Amino acid sequence: MHIGLIGLGKMGFNMRERMRQGGIEVTGYDRNPDVTDVASIDELVKAVPAPRLIWVMVPAGDITDSVINDLGERLEKGDMIIDGGNTRFTDDIRHAAQLEPKGIRFVDCGVSGGVWGLENGYGLMTGGSDENIEFAMPVFDALRPEGPREDSFVHVGDVGAGHYAKMVHNGIEYGLMQSYAEGYELLAKKDIIKDVTGTFRAWQKGTVVRSWLLDLLVKALDEDPGLANIAPYVEDSGEGRWTVEEAIATAVPVPAITAALFARFESRDEAAPAMRMVAALRNQFGGHAVKRPGEN
Q1: Catalytic pick from 166, 182, 291, 295?
Q2: Among 115, 134, 191, 266, which one is most buried in terms of CB atoms within 10 A?
Q3: What is the pLDDT of residues 35-92, one digit of tens each?
Q4: 166 a catalytic residue
């Protein structure tokens, strides 16, 4: 199978390599000449055989809109676009409706795995028709971790469902990180606790709070025991906000996720050890930039 991939940043670059390792031929395009395979989207479209499958891996919002609009003018009936970025599910529905009169197929795919996906594989949540999902299945199988497909891949429902699931996934992620971070602050504050890092390390096997996030927390503390090189400033990607907005719209109480989102807002005004840990965790799993102490 031969696909096109637009966007070779932190995620897209590693995804291209993992797909190639999985036997998928990939032609990638990025504005960065150091990583791109072709000089333009037009060259990308010409390089991929019909019916084309083009995976879009760029920031959500205006950039995604621009790329999909561009592809809509260049692709042909029967071609397919997969949006693998963190697009809001309502935009997926709009994009699919925009492309449908031209006969261009559309699938949305929530992707989790961060900068570790090349090594570990990616968790995938897809939205679209059965036929379209089946068409792209070799690509999904190349990206996901080894083992049973259902352990790391799900066809959630119609267009938009994949990114809706990823939105909720990220909302849960907010709450988990905040809980670990608050526990870290409490342990670090108490004078009878002599080994904070060792305490978290001892939780990695056998306890009910063990997780990959916990492993990354220990890694962050090993690299910077007091997190002195990280400012307690935490961005939010947008998906946490969208999760809370959906909770309000559907009258579903999500107090833990909401509190975690508000804690990120508060971090931008006050110094707090817990928010240093949240910033450190985001950097560990997603490569998200952190502010250093004193940076504005």
Answers
A1: 166
A2: 115
A3: 999 999 999 999 999 999 999 999 999 999 999 999 999 999 999 999 999 999 999 9
A4: yes
**What 3-state DSSP class applies to 12?**
helix
pLDDT at 286 over 80: no
In this prediction, residues 162-183 reach a mean pLDDT of 95
Spell out the residues 6+ positions from residue 64 whose beta carbon is closer than 8 angstroms to its own.
Answer: 56, 58, 83, 85, 87, 91
Q: List the structure tokens of 228.
A: 């002195």
User: Nearest 5 degrees, angle CA 207-CA 213-CA 214?
Assistant: 40
Give catalytic status of residue 173 as yes or no. Answer: yes
Task: Catalytic residue, from 73, 173, 219, 295: name it.
Answer: 173
Q: What is the pLDDT of residue 277?
A: 81
Q: Give CA angle at 278 (275, 280), nearest 5°.
A: 110
Give the Å distances, CA to CA, from 188 to 177, 197, 226, 232, 277.
16, 9, 9, 15, 11
- Spell out the residues 6+ positions from residue 246 whose beta carbon is closer than 8 angstroms to its own: 164, 167, 168, 252
For 111, the 3-state DSSP assignment is strand
DSSP 36: -
Which candidate, 131, 114, 132, places its Cα nearest to that of 123? Answer: 114
Residue indicated by tokens 């939010």: 236
Which class for 292: exposed (0-12), middle (13-18), buried (19 or more C-beta within 10 A)? exposed
Rg (CA), the chain: 20
Residue 276 and residue 232: Cα distance in Å, rounded? 4
DSSP state of 294: T
